[in-house]
Amino acid sequence: MALSVRDVTVHYGSFTAVREARLDLADGEVLALLGPSGSGKSTLLRAITGLEPMSAGTVAWDGADLAAVPVHKRGFGLVFQDGQLFPHRDVAANIAFGLRMHGVPRAQHAKRVAELLDLVGLAGFERRRVTELSGGQAQRVALARALAPEPRLLLLDEPLSGLDAGLREQLAIDLAELLRRSKITALLVTHDQEEAFTLADRVAVLDAGEIRQEGAVGSVWRRPADEVVARFLGVSTFLPGTAESGVVGTELGAVAVPDAPDGPVRLGLRPHGLRVAAEGLPGEVTAAVHRRDHVRLVVRLAESTVDAVAPAAADLRAGDPVRLTLDPDGITVVGL
Ligand SMILES: Nc1ncnc2c1ncn2[C@@H]1O[C@H](COP(=O)(O)OP(=O)(O)OP(=O)(O)O)[C@@H](O)[C@H]1O
């Protein structure tokens, strides 16, 4: 195991920001620490880098404890939300800083800087002043600077959250491609599930300083371990049901969940787990919000109020009657 984090606890005075965190990261793997604001993600990342003193626990690389290894000798690269570039130097000098710090001979700098700029999609930007870069370009330069010394672990703390939505999505896709192509081992902090799912192989969900669930992104998404994780991953309605031979019967109807074990289960419904259809449960729209590719609804049923979706073209308003049907794609089993 490249990185192993064991029972790491961090206190700020009497407040416990991270409690007994355990994580493993294999070579070439990308792990996202995902959680709401204040859940302790940055604190855990900082503890791993050595920037934050730990009250208990160990951080090891290839089995060797890093307690006595100072931050700059850990061989880790760091990228923060605002790239923290040196404003008075040009792009090439910012990237070469990392090379100088690691004793790369000066004669090799220009070639390596050009390679790194090519890698982050900014070929030819060497002489550009960093004050003349867009937010997205600045983050690419920060990434190139962090990668310059070929770190054994790249740590990214909300690297895209200072950017506007469209750019963030594009940069997340580019970054995911770069991490996979270059087989970089990386730990990413984010509060954005889309970003975590685009970039990471595995995800650890934090809440109130504790890792609630850790696993492959797909399995955490499909099988959240508890209600806290489920809510954070977009589940808004919980529904008891009884599974028999891969079909779960509930008060809202039956739905196929092939791997649900027979017996009582708890379903978690994301908004698109209930869709407007020609047939189904009757209800009344109490709120409708038009989004780019669908309409989000709040619908009052006979016994409860639920979230649901309709196609973008649906012209629905509060007071309209609708019928809802369960869609397995938006339904998880919680706490299996
Ligand atoms: N230097 C500090 N001194 C005291 N408390 C702190 C300090 N840094 C963070 N905290 C507290 O520790 C908790 C965890 O903070 P942390 O920054 O790790 O959360 P986070 O999940 O990264 O949140 P965000 O996404 O908002 O950055 C928060 O309640 C925060 O207020």
Automatic annotation (TrEMBL):
Name under which the protein is recorded: ABC-type quaternary amine transporter
Gene3D superfamilies, A to Z: P-loop containing nucleotide triphosphate hydrolases
Superkingdom, natural source: Bacteria
Gene Ontology terms, MF aspect: ABC-type ferric iron transporter activity; ABC-type quaternary ammonium compound transporting activity; ATP binding; ATP hydrolysis activity
CDD domains recorded: ABC_Carb_Solutes_like (cd03259)
Signal peptide start-end: none
E.C. designation(s): 7.6.2.9
Coiled-coil residue windows: none
Residue span(s) of domain ABC transporter: 3-233
GO cellular component assignments: ATP-binding cassette (ABC) transporter complex
Pfam families: ABC_tran, TOBE_2
PANTHER family recorded: SPERMIDINE/PUTRESCINE IMPORT ATP-BINDING PROTEIN POTA, SPERMIDINE_PUTRESCINE IMPORT ATP-BINDING PROTEIN POTA
Taxonomic source organism: Amycolatopsis sulphurea
PROSITE patterns tied to this protein: ABC_TRANSPORTER_1 (PS00211), ABC_TRANSPORTER_2 (PS50893)
Record keywords: ATP-binding, Cell membrane, Ion transport, Iron, Iron transport, Membrane, Nucleotide-binding, Transport
